C-alpha cells in the first residue's frame, strides 16, 4: 500500500489478520479463531452491510424512475 491510500478500518482489520496468519492469505480464509472479535471482518468486508451495494442502489433507482 502506498502512502496516498487511506487505511480504512476494514483494510486495517484485513492487514492485521494477514499479519496474524503469518502472511498467508489461505490461513486468513481458513482462520479457526472464531472468538476473535475481528473474525467476521477478516476478509476485508463488513457482514453487517451484506446486500448494500452501489450497483443494487442504482438498479432500484432505475426501476423506480
Count of DSSP-assigned helices: 3
Please tell me how large the radius of gyration is: 16 Å
Low-confidence parts lasting 5 or more residues at pLDDT below 50?
Answer: none
Order of helices and strands: HHH
Biggest sheet descriptor: none
Q: What's the number of extended β-strand segments?
A: 0
Could you report the average pLDDT, rounded to the nearest whole number?
Answer: 80
Sheet/helix structural class: mainly alpha
Describe this protein's structure.
The structure is a single chain. The protein is mainly α and 65 residues long. It has a domain of 43 residues. 43% of the residues lie in helices and 0% in strands. The chain is built from 3 helices and no strands.
